[in-house]
Amino acid sequence: MVEQARGAASPARYGFTDDRAEGLLCAAGWWTGGGPEQSSTDVLIALSRSADPDLALRGLDRIREADPEGWPALSAALCEDVGLRGRLIGVLGTSTALGDFLVGSPGEWRRLTRDECNEPGSFADELLTAVHAEDTEPLTGTVAEQALKTGYRGLLLEIAAADLGHVVEPKLDEPSYTEVTGRLTVLAEAALIAGLAVAHAELAGKDLDGTQLAVIAMGKCGGRELNYVSDVDVIFVGEGDLQLATRLASTMMRVVNNACFEVDAALRPEGKAGALVRTLDGHTAYYQKWARTWEFQALLKARAVTGDAELGARYIDMVDEVVWSAAERENFVNDVQQMRRRVEKHVPADLADRELKLGRGGLRDVEFAVQLLQLVHGRADTELRLRSTMDALRALGAGGYVGRDDAAELEKSYEFLRTVEHRLQLRRLRRTHLFPDASETAELRVLARAIGIRPERGRSEAAVLLADFRRCVQRIRRLHEKLFYRPLLQSVASVPSEALRLNTKQAAQRLTALGYAAPDGALQHIRALTAGVTRRASIQHALLPVILDLLADTPDPDGGLLAYRKVSEALEETPWYLRVLRDEGAVVERLTCLLGTSKLVPDLLMRAPEVLRLLGDPVQLAGRDPVEVANSLRATVRRQPGMKAAVAAARSLRRHEVLRVAAADLLGLLDVRAVCEALSSVWAAVLQSALAAAISQRHAELGRAPAKIAVIGMGRLGGAELGYGSDADVLFVCEADEGAEDGEAVRFASSVAEIVRKRLGEPSADPPLEVDADLRPEGRGGPLVRTLESYRAYYARWGEVWEAQALLRARYIAGDAELGKRFIEMVDATRYPEGGLDAARVREVRRMKARVQTERIPRGSDPTLNTKLGRGGLADVEWTVQLLQLRHAHEVPTLRTTSTPGALAALTEAGLLDPADAQALTETWLLATHVRNATMLVRGKAADQVPGSGRDLAAVARVMGHSDEEDPGEFLDYYRRTTRRAHAAVERVFFED
User: Fold this and answer.
1) Pairing state of beta strands 232-239 and 263-264?
2) Are both 978 and 852 inside the same structural domain?
3) How far is the CA of 384 from the CAs of 298, 319, 374, 395, in angstroms?
4) Which residue, among 186, 208, 190, 215, has the nearest Cα to 129 in the 3D structure?
5) Are residues 470 and 336 located together in one domain of the fold?
6) What whole-number distance in Å separates Cα of residue 767 and Cα of residue 727?
7) Which of 74, 181, 589, 638 has the fewest CB atoms within 10 Å of its CB?
């Protein structure tokens, strides 16, 4: 209210919010008690236009206090000199660090007068003069560093003032983005030149004749696109005495580090572990033999800046030869993909939307994409061999590798983000790439005003900046679609594109660079999916750029694209299929992950497309209760009219559930025990439903059901530990109903069991539904079904130790529950023998294990990578657990469990197994089970052997949670290491007397 009453006489009219503003203005002589001095109106208007008027005014007041004698001259100049006024107030209202420099260096403001601003060409001379490089006694040590620091900071002030002045005084010229980055780069080069001069002065007593050193700028300095606050990446090349050359280089780095900015030589061969200075021949040999692809990306910007000019020129000639053949390297694609992932993973999730440099849609996305296209197409087109990101982007547009409009949009977005980055760094002259949070309105307002943004259409400066920032990021997020994939579609379209059309060779090169091993096949899939003028083709044309991009990050892009084509063709009559992909981005991301990783999923998806909808909702995908699933399956099958329809319904529902579980497994939403439980539950429900239908059929045929039947789960089914490719090991047991003979009961039950086995085992494209009864008494030669009493008599008289071992996993699964319960109670005496096992039977178990392991591992395979029978594999763990159960379960009831991990926990709790051994065995059992499942998902067929190399190994490693950046061989090492520890525990425990 007070401000409103004072109206025009209030400093608030000029944007000041500080209560001290009027006092500071009066002290400066620009304000009287009633309002502004007439001569100072232009100064007040200029202050009101600055990014932070209060900060600018406080900065001027601090200068006045620090240099009271020089203040009258400055005050008068501010009123009269438009250039000085704009530049000085622009700096003071934006940068606290440069304000501190002006306060601490009285008179430095004179640098900003209209006639005394330096041109970039004079930067090196000024800094050399500052360190007395041309005098007979040049400066050295801390004195030289301080002189260089002052000279550098003064020139940086001039660049910032020219960059900011137009915001305060519109009459001043606005330098372009490239002019600003170019000046900053020249200043950095000048600092390196001066630093090398100081190094020569400090080593003046050494014999430097014949010692040559060339300094090669890399990164943004090499591309002439430095920030206000950047590390300056360099590489050193030396000839002659390399020890002296190294001392020159390290001294120069120390001087410049202390005075100006950090000089970073980590891009040299072997990084920080490598020699600081190498000869030209040493560099050449390294790049030809050892360099990785990212090093060639870095070398795109290499430029000699100081030191021995002739040596620097020879180095650049060498670099040109090796860089432009990098795309032909065998590991080019993998290295490029790993670089992309590494960049994205460096950003914390909570900061990803604000990270200007490394976030999605950030500066590095543009730089990375431009460099990749340069490496791919620059081999043949020398016009693309440019160091600047902006220059290269323009050349890509002019050459037809990127649409001209796309290149212009990206250039505009890139320039905007770099300008935001510059203003953020100017504030305190600290390196930062973090955009303010949306809640920080005061920071956003100052940043917006520093860029020159003003309110518009009722929106504040902060709101305008936030909208512009988000628009730029979203535009760049479509970067790969725009730069890589859209031209691929245009290259195969029937109508030529006006903006861009790649020929077949160029399109194939681009697909190869993105990770596709068979680009010609990929182009055929693209043609097939986008052919015609139908609505389906139109949607595919919009989807494919995104899908190609996402598939490029999977272990098998080619297989994923083929699978996508097959699924799309199979579901082209499904009305919601393409609509879901078009409208739900999360579904597309997860689908491409599945298709590019697994051969099992596409086949299931074509016959169970409804699971696709679940990909958008992780809770629905992974959160279903196995009991609820089993109840639903049984209820659905019960409603079917006959055995054939019942089995078809059971198969369909099982397919749906296997696909749902597989998708959740591949996406990391279910752990291995939950996967096994879910698969076991659905298998049990299928058996229950098929048995009920078969009994119903035979009852209808005979008019009666003369027997009760129960199905006993054995092996992994009994332990609820089924994998994707597991058979269902079972025993069939029956009991005659009242009035029926045992023979009649057995015949009836056998016919029912045969119907179940035959119907479920019929050939199908789904994972097999094999019902295996080979664990029954007398094996395949014995009757398929026995009565309960027959089982009792057999086990009491003829049962062998391996049968007792097999019965450790016996569990009621289907049929008559009461009969199943009595069977389980009956076999307890066999599987949990009183007194345990005698020494002879223990030796028999050990001999059986040795024989199985020797005879059943395929010849020529690596036994350390066999998940079932290999060293430390599933058999090792399970036989060890089962031997301990046979020996102790009668006395220790907690060991009476069919679960392997459950038994290991019980053994530890009972003190029968060392906790470290139990942990090793549990860890390897879970690992081997997970790997076995992953191998089935990746290959589409069951296999006990871990893939030893290639895309299958990479896919399995990815499913197992290993980073894409890691060599898949590291996963094999991890697997062998884990199983080796378990095998050592087995050797101790299994063979312990």
Assistant:
1) parallel
2) yes
3) 15, 15, 6, 6
4) 190
5) yes
6) 10
7) 638
Nearest-angstrom CA–CA distance, 43 and 82: 9
> Could you say which DSSP state residue 346 is in?
T
The amino acid at residue 103 is V
C-alpha angle with apex 234: 228 to 238, nearest 5 degrees?
150
| pLDDT tens digits along 191-202 | 999 999 999 999
Note whether 872 and 981 are within 8 A (CB). Answer: yes
The model's pTM is: 0.66
Domain hosting 398: range is 330-477
| Pair 842, 965 in one domain | yes
Residues whose CB falls within 8 Å of the CB of residue 809, separated by 6 or more in sequence, listed in order: 713, 714, 715, 716, 718, 719, 898
pLDDT tens per residue, range 325-370: 877 776 676 676 667 667 767 778 788 889 998 888 889 888 988 8
CA distance 923 to 556: 29
**Nearest of 368, 402, 371, 364 to residue 385 by alpha carbon:** 371
Report the sign of the C-alpha dihedral through residues 13, 16, 19, 23, in that order. negative
In a domain, 273, yes or no: no
Predicted pLDDT at 175 = 94
Chain length of the chain:
993
| Residues whose CB falls within 8 Å of the CB of residue 846, separated by 6 or more in sequence, listed in order | 883, 990, 991
The DSSP letter of residue 485 is I
First to last CA, the chain: 94
Contacts of 463 (CB under 8 A, 6+ apart): none
Instruction: Give the residue ranges of DSSP H helices in 615-729.
Output: 618-622, 626-638, 643-666, 672-702, 715-718
**Same domain (yes/no): 876, 817:** no
The verdict on residue 942 lying in a domain is yes
Q: Measure the CA–CA gap between 590 and 208, rounded to whole angstroms.
A: 62
